[in-house]
Every structure is written in structure tokens, then in C-alpha cells.
Design a protein that fits this description.
Shape: globular
Low-confidence stretches: none
Helix content: under 10%
Radius of gyration: 18 Å
Number of domains: 1
Length: 292
């Protein structure tokens, strides 16, 4: 497996603070890149009350672009994805709707429909973590959650994370278990999917069939990564490694110059990944690199 490193370019505070939730398994934080009105935004949600809000922020500055209430009855949303073709958010939750993926209008906050996946879902709804994360590329969507408890050699139990891949219609394509992993965030990427693993404190890149391709040490407080979003909407060939402050002069060749090479060199080309670390209450923006 390829060893990578996460290069942090900038960071900003959570737009809405998380609150301690009891039991802790009902806590959740979610991220996705999408649209709101005329803006490209980073959608954010964390547990602040039982009925939480979706907050749209500028992905370069963290400035708020808008906020929407979650649909009635949709509590403890644990994962978000954005379907560009349909201009809609996909969401999953840990409580009463653990067996559903539902659609949200990113401009009004209204629910646009739901897919009942309970008939063939293999997640364990009794562990407070039936669905931890969701992501979509518009053609298929992936879900991450906890599988059923299994015994392990030598005694004890295992509760591995599991990813299911489905067509946009909800039809199940395949399932892959990740023993020893605790998947807390999942995002689409041009080369398949990327997830955060709180148990190993790693960022993991997987292929189309779930094989682990590369990994990088986590960012922020150990075990605190709870959500991840890969920006597939922006042309990063025309963006700077670090955005300049409003009104600031751009020095040619600096990290604020879009024409300057990014250093260290990004793995597989320029890209931007956002990671939410709950203990830090910080969203880290950066990219993966093979360089030390």
C-alpha cells in the first residue's frame, strides 16, 4: 500500500460548535462539497441540538454562505453527499431512519424523497452506528457503517466497519468489510473513494472494488477525524495552494499564486480535501502527497 501524508494548507473553525452527546454513539459530524444558491460551498453539520442545521460555508475562507434546518424528523444526520447531476444532497442518519438514505434540496432544506434500504441492508442498527457516512458520484452511492458483532480468535468481539455500494436507485451492488477499521467519514474522489479511520487515525484511499490503495496519518487530534470531503467541483489547476486574503497583493511564485507549483507535489495532481476533527472543532483543508 502506498504511504502518503496529508499536507495542511489552511484551516478554519467549525461554523457551529459540537456539543457532547450522551450516549456518544449518537454524535455525528458530516461534510460534503456542493452548491447553495449560486455558490460552491462546503456543507457542514454537527450535533449541536437534536434538530441540527446544515451550514454552507465558503470552502476557501470558512465564511458562512447560508444555513438550512434539517428536514422534520431527520435527527442525528451522520453523513452527507452531493449529487451534482440532480443538484441534491444525500443524507443518512443513526436514529429512526437508520435504514434510509434521503434527499435534501440544497437551496430550501426540504426533503425531496427517500430510499428505503432496510430489506437488504447489512448494517447493525442496534449499535447506534447503522450508518456513519455516505457519499455519491451521481451514478452510484456508497454508505459506511458498522457490521454485526463477530467473535475473533483468542476471544473477544469485533465490530468491523462495512461499506456498501449501491446504484442511484438503491439497488445493492456490493459489500466490503474492513476489519480493524472504524470508518467515520467517507467521500467520493476521482480515483474512487476516501475514508477516515478513527481507530488507526488514518486517511485511507480505496479502489472501485474496496481494495486499500494508499493511506496517510490523520490530521488534528488523534482519533478525532469524523468527516471528510473531496472537492470534485473546483478546477484546482487554476487555484493557489493557499488562498490569499481579500485585497492582499499576490507575490509571483508564492503559495498564494495560482500559477506557482504546489509544494510538496500533490499525489495524482492538484486536489483539495477537507477533514473535520471534532475534538479540535476545526476543519483542515489540504491534499495528499507522497513527499516527506
Amino acid at each position: 500500500m502506498i504511504s502518503l501524508r496529508f499536507e495542511t494548507c489552511f484551516q478554519f473553525d467549525f461554523p457551529e460548535p459540537s456539543e457532547a452527546v450522551n450516549p456518544p454513539v449518537l454524535s455525528a459530524t458530516a461534510l460534503t462539497i456542493g452548491r447553495h444558491e449560486s455558490f460552491e460551498v462546503l456543507w457542514f453539520l454537527t450535533q449541536s441540538t437534536f434538530d441540527d442545521v446544515l451550514v454552507a460555508v465558503d470552502p476557501l475562507t470558512g465564511a458562512e454562505r447560508g444555513r438550512l434546518p434539517t428536514p422534520p424528523g431527520r435527527h442525528v444526520i451522520s453523513g452527507l453527499g452531493y449529487d451534482l447531476r440532480g443538484d441534491r444532497l444525500l443524507a443518512c442518519q443513526k436514529t429512526t431512519g437508520w435504514n434510509e438514505t434521503f434527499l435534501i434540496n440544497p437551496h430550501t432544506g426540504q426533503e425531496m424523497g427517500a430510499l428505503d434500504l432496510g430489506s437488504d441492508s447489512l448494517f447493525d442498527q442496534f449499535q447506534g452506528g447503522a450508518l456513519q457516512a455516505t457519499a455519491t458520484n451521481g451514478l452510484v452511492f456508497a454508505q459506511a457503517g458498522l457490521s454485526h458483532i463477530e467473535t475473533v480468535p483468542g476471544g473477544g468481539i469485533s465490530h468491523p466497519s462495512r461499506i456498501q455500494l449501491r446504484l442511484a436507485t438503491g439497488d445493492l451492488i456490493g459489500t466490503k468489510d474492513f476489519p480493524g477499521r472504524e470508518i467515520t467519514g467517507l467521500t467520493k474522489a476521482p480515483f474512487s473513494w476516501v475514508f477516515t479511520d478513527a481507530a488507526a487515525d488514518e486517511i485511507v484511499v480505496i479502489g472501485p472494488f474496496g481494495n486499500e490503495i494508499a493511506s496517510a496519518p490523520g490530521v488534528g487530534a488523534a482519533g478525532g477525524m469524523h468527516a471528510i470531503a473531496y472537492d470534485t467541483l473546483t478546477d484546482h489547476g487554476a487555484t493557489a495552494q493557499v488562498p490569499a486574503e481579500d485585497g492582499a497583493a499576490i507575490v509571483p511564485g508564492s503559495v498564494n499564486d495560482p500559477a506557482a507549483p504546489w509544494s510538496p507535489e500533490p499525489w495524482l495532481g492538484r486536489h483539495r480535501i477537507y477533514i473535520a476533527n471534532v475534538p479540535d472543532q476545526v476543519i483542515y483543508a489540504g491534499y495528499l502527497t507522497r513527499e516527506p
